[in-house]
Amino acid sequence: MSNKNINRIFEALTPRTEQKEKMFHNILMQTQFEHKRQRRIPPIKPVRYAVLATVLMVCLTTTAFAAAYMGLDEAFIKFLKPANNEQTEYLSNGAYVVGKTVENEYGSLTFKQVIGDGNLTYILMDFTAPEGTVLNAARYRFDTSITTNQSFHSTGFEVLNDGNPNDNKISLIMNIMTDSSLADQTVNLKLYDLQAADLFPGNFKTIIPGPWETSFKLEFKEYSTLYQIDQSFTMFGYTAILKTISVSPISITLKINSGSLKEINAASRFKEIGPNEYLDDFPITINYKDGTSEITSIFTGLSRSNYMSNQMVTIKTFENVINDKEIASIVFFDKEIPINK
């Protein structure tokens, strides 16, 4: 049975809020009736109340679980742009509701929801400035201090269109790129100095100080499927080994080992072709089962090398989520790797 069918069965069996309330009411009424009918019998009811407590605990636990995984926030749907309802459902199954707000005299910051895969985490947040402040710049970001059990983090922010450009509120997506998954880890965040800028090449300037500090667990269900490759190929004429490919709807990550990483990086140029836009010197071609394909010709995401361990990590992110279940193969330099076989 597929994960999709299992999820649908679970959702079908999970009572809705109004059903839980009715069940709870019926349990109480039945218990009161039984108690009145048999109150003259010597008290032998501890088991009944233990069962009632167990049932109530199950209902409360189910409610808490359902609240934590209650579907994808509308802002996330607009940001990710899933192609159809099936893809939206799949993304929803991995989303986790944080629901945590941090306030001070400079404004409030609400961490709403988080999703992620093996190397990329997205956190949806809303910032509300004091009344009378207008937040209508093209770009916003925070200075960020982040701690998890990872030794490396790359962070960035993207402003979402909330339909009200001249009020005191903005919605942001914070992206965190790491060498491995942040799922089920606790993140300690300190965001300070909200900065604003016009369209690139406008410079960021601090408009509201901070800080806003909090911690919470990233209990999202990661989307990635990891493929162990361990095959040799060449990059700019230098021998390398493609160790793994991690595939999800929101990113594709490749890990490469080579004793020639300095030479490989020197051969790449990342040529600027527009304002803050560069060619991807480590592109991948995604071939789909229907015969179509797409190439990551514009650099998005992250590429970094560790010359001590001879390992390169390159993360490809996408403007729209991809249909990872329909990928036939991925081509990287002279190596084509079958996927979903």
Concise structural overview:
It comes from Paenibacillus odorifer. This protein is α+β, with helices and mostly antiparallel strands and 341 residues long. It has helices at residues 3-13, 17-37, 46-68, 74-80, 85-94, 261-267, and strands at residues 96-104, 107-116, 120-128, 139-147, 154-160, 169-177, 186-197, 205-208, 212-217, 225-235, 238-247, 251-257, 272-274, 277-278, 284-288, 293-295, 302-306, 311-317, 327-332, 335-338.
Description:
The protein has 341 residues and is of the alpha+beta class. The protein folds into 3 domains: 3-68; 74-86 and 94-217, bacillus anthracis domain (Immunoglobulin-like, Sandwich), CATH 2.60.40; 225-338, Immunoglobulin-like (Sandwich), CATH 2.60.40. Helix content is 23%, strand content 40%. It has 6 helices and 20 strands. It has helices at residues 3-13, 17-37, 46-68, 74-80, 85-94, 261-267; strands spanning 96-104, 107-116, 120-128, 139-147, 154-160, 169-177, 186-197, 205-208, 212-217, 225-235, 238-247, 251-257, 272-274, 277-278, 284-288, 293-295, 302-306, 311-317, 327-332, 335-338. The protein has a 5-stranded antiparallel β-sheet, covered by helices on one side. A 5-stranded antiparallel β-sheet has the order 10-11-12-18-17. Strands 4, 7, 8 and 9 form a 4-stranded antiparallel β-sheet that branches. A hairpin with a 2-residue loop joins β13 (272-274) and β14 (277-278). α2 (17-37) packs antiparallel against α3 (46-68). It starts with a helix and ends with a strand.
